[in-house]
Amino acid sequence: MSLYLYRLGKFAFRRKWLVLPVWLVLLVALGALASTVSKPMEDDFTMPNLPSERATEIMDRHFPGMSAEFDFDAVTGTYVIAAPEGTRLTDAGNVAAIDSLVAELGALDIVDHSVPLENPVATAESMGCLSPERATDEFTATCSGAPLNVLATTNADTVALLDVPFTIDSWQDITPEDRAAAFDAADGARDAGLAVELSGSIAMEEEMPGGTAELIGMGVALIVMIIAFGAIVAAFVPIITAIVGLGAATMVILAGTAVTTIPTFTTFLASMIGIALSIDYALFIVSRYKHELVVSDSPEEAAGRAVGTAGSAVVFAGLTVIIALSGLSIVGVDFLTYMGLGGALAAAFAVIVALTLMPALLGAFGRFLFTPKIPFVAKHDPEDDRYVTNGQRIARLIGRFPAVTLVAGIVLLGVLAAPAINLNLGLPGDESAPTESTIRQAYELRTEGFGEGSNGVLQIAVDLEDVPDERRDEALDSLRAELESYGDMDYVVGPTPSEDGAGALFQAVPMSGPNNQATKDLVKEARGAEASFADEYGMEYGVTGTTAIFADVDDKLLGSIAPYMSIVAGAAFLLLILVFRSILVPLTAALGFLLSMAATFGATVLIFQEGALGLISDPQPIVSFLPIMLIGLVFGLAMDYQVFLVTRMREEYVHGASPKEAMVNGYHHGARVVTAAAIIMISVFSAFMLEDDVAAKSMGFALAAGVLFDAFIVRMVIIPSLLALMGDSAWWIPKWLDRILPNIDVEGQKLAGLGSGTKEAKPQPQFVD
Questions:
Q1: What is its main location (predicted)?
Q2: Which residue of 323, 379, 544, 563 could cross-link 52, Cys pair, CB 3.0 to 4.6 Å?
Q3: How many angstroms separate the CA atoms of 90 and 443, rounded?
Q4: DSSP string of 538-554?
């Protein structure tokens, strides 16, 4: 491979004024195609084969249309109304204010007027729920589902709910004007003294995280690369390749919307991956090019050798990222699949631009590339073997005390990993919205009036088709008694019979909130009783609702982590055997990643779930999608750093250095590149902590922590320590396997025979034990 890439690098360098226009024409063509055929992106968060689908099927059969409200695309809206302190909603002035709110909503075009809206106070009165005698079982049974908090022992009649149907087809069709109109309709009631907040998808503001993070990342990247290269012009080359590679990948994704539905988050993930990898790979190749300029007799030869050696590592580093992200498809969730494929596409373009556009740009900038030089920084270039770098000092320290550094690294990660045993997953709900948002305030008001469980009501859909008519009432009474007997159940409303008489619906309100583990356990408990009811009565039922669906999603995603990691890690392990021609090096690379992931989960749980250090004022469960996306993204980057650092160590070993010398010299040449790449990625990911959304904050923190732990502790402490301890055995491979594996020559041994283009290198500093 190194020979082919060597020739490609020389060709691109020499024919720069052909390669650069070809890339320009390609970008223009892709842009024209995307603008011509692309369609709007759509977000479909449905997941197949969830247990809650049983209830949906029963609803569709006996309660046509009711299951639509549990569709992620449905447009829902609930006004939560609270009386001024010291008053009740049943007071005449407050009743009049709610009447005005109902009238305002009745005038909105976006409201479905097929079913007239009714003042919740009037609804409660018609149900007989405003009676002063509220302690009877009959009153509780009748008024549990009232839209007024008549069951509250304190602050009764102070909070009410007004569910409003909308005519908008999908939440993706909601415009800012629609959202503003729905919120502003309550201004009159607010002016009258009522607190009115709005929940549901009509109030959700679709904010795509990013933008600021990318700008911060680009700014930090530029500064880091100026330091890494010791020159200003060279620092802009990776930025150019990142823009071109990301632009090409984005336009291909947009063109793909013509043939399939692609979620909007795909371009965000692709941009994050594209920028990161393009800069990483450019750093690696340009750093090697700078070194080759010292030992080659022409810039063209230096470009060929840089692409032939560093470019080989880039190819396999890119393949590990592509494998990791494409592997998200095994989860079986469409939007995760498309996001993973979009990220894999961006990774592929990052590799392509590094191998073709990069050497062409090196040729175009010519002798101006490493100008103007930055004083002091340029003097201590890790590719200039006349100087001892900090990287070399650290490597020598590790080489002297490998057992100590190995144990210290493992113990540190182990301590950080300890809180991970308390990991609690959940999907972002109203309780995780920013505290100043109307959605969050609606959640708090509803909790105050109806209890926290009212924010996640369980819907129990019952199928009575196989139950004899004379036993149906008995079966429903028995099921209600069973549900009410659960310790974590607040109350149960129903049953509500279907028109055909063969179905019924219960609303079960838990004690705890939607993402609380007790609520998830309650869902499992309710489902676990179905078998006994089927045996005794022939009755079937299912549990759905937002809480049940969220619990199902959590279980499915959590259950997908092990197979995902095994498939991705297994494929990457085989690929790394090809790269390193070793068994132990790929194995330690994978085991090291497990350590860094455990520490990352532990730190994330400690800060975002348990609220340690006071960094988060509102601790929440960890978003369900974070673990599997974190694994996919950080695994790819971790293998990048493994390939960048350890291939240089293997190159030194293959060229005759002892195992310890190879580790030190490889560390000396690769540490600055890996450090620079990791700092850039940490900066990009950390910038997402500036977002208001807790999920975005936790995702940014976890990604930054994952890169920090993996790059600086696993790849730059634990792996070198192991290589120093294992010695020659680190590079052992069974002879039979060595014979059948293709020789891909990542180290560039075949380039050694091309001696006409090299000059004698300066002597390297020797390792002193």
A1: membrane
A2: 544
A3: 22
A4: --EEEEESHHHHHHHHH
Closest CA to 77 of 200, 183, 179: 200
Other residues' Cβ atoms within 10 Å of the Cβ of residue 158? 24
Quick one: which H or E segment has residue 493? Answer: strand 489-497
Span between the terminal Cα atoms of the chain, in Å: 35
For residues 400-415, give the mean pLDDT.
95
Of the candidates 384, 357, 376, the one whose C-alpha atom is nearest the C-alpha of residue 290 is 384
The verdict on 587 and 736 lying in the same domain is yes
Residue 528 carries which DSSP code? Answer: H
Q: What is the pLDDT of residues 220-256, one digit of tens each?
A: 778 888 877 778 888 888 888 888 998 999 999 999 8
Same domain, 648 and 533: no
Would you say residue 712 has pLDDT above 90?
Answer: yes
How far from 445 is each of 25, 198, 430, 494, 693, CA to CA, in Å? 58, 10, 12, 24, 20
The mean pLDDT of 191-213, rounded to a whole number, is: 76
Entry pTM: 0.79
Q: What is the C-alpha separation between 678 and 570, in angstroms, rounded?
A: 24
Residues 118 and 144 in one domain: yes
Place of tokens 């030194």: 652
CA distance 723 to 713: 14
Q: State both tokens at 665.
A: 């010299």
pLDDT bin (cut points 50, 70, 90) of residue 767 is very low
Select the more confidently predicted residue: 614 or 540.
540
Structure token digits, residue 759: 């000059």
Sign of CA dihedral 438, 339, 621, 486: positive
The torsion of the CA quartet 250, 253, 258, 264, rounded to 10 degrees, works out to: -90
The two beta strands, 458-463 and 503-510, are antiparallel
Distance CA 717, CA 656 (A): 23
Question: What pLDDT was estimated at residue 762?
Answer: 45
Q: Cα separation of 327 and 340, whole Å?
A: 7
At 716, the amino acid letter reads M
**CA-CA-CA-CA dihedral for 499, 502, 507, 508, to nearest 10:** 170
9, 624, 633, 678, 769 from 628: Cα distances, Å? 37, 8, 9, 21, 43
In this predicted structure, the answer to whether residue 338 has a pLDDT above a threshold of 70 is: yes
- Sequence-distant (6+) residues with CB within 8 A of 300 are 10, 13, 14, 363
CB 570 within 8 A of CB 495: no
pLDDT category at 44 given cuts 50, 70, 90 is: low
Q: In what order do the strands lie in the sheet with 195-199?
A: 159-163, 78-82, 195-199
* Domain carrying residue 649: 388-430+556-742
Q: Is the peptide bond before 132 cis (omega within 30 degrees of 0)?
A: no
Does residue 760 have a pLDDT over 60?
no
- DSSP E strands in 179-288: the ranges are 195-199
84 and 233 part of one domain: no
Phi, psi of 412 (to 5 degrees): -60, -45
**Domain shared by 96 and 136, yes or no:** yes
In this structure, the chain runs to a length of 769
Interacting residues of 670 by C-beta distance below 8 A, sequence separation 6+: 382, 391, 644, 645, 648, 649
Q: Return mean pLDDT, the chain.
A: 83
Residue 67 counted as domain residue = no
User: Residue 349: pLDDT band by 50, 70, 90 thresholds?
Assistant: very high
Return the higher-pLDDT residue of 215 and 21: 21
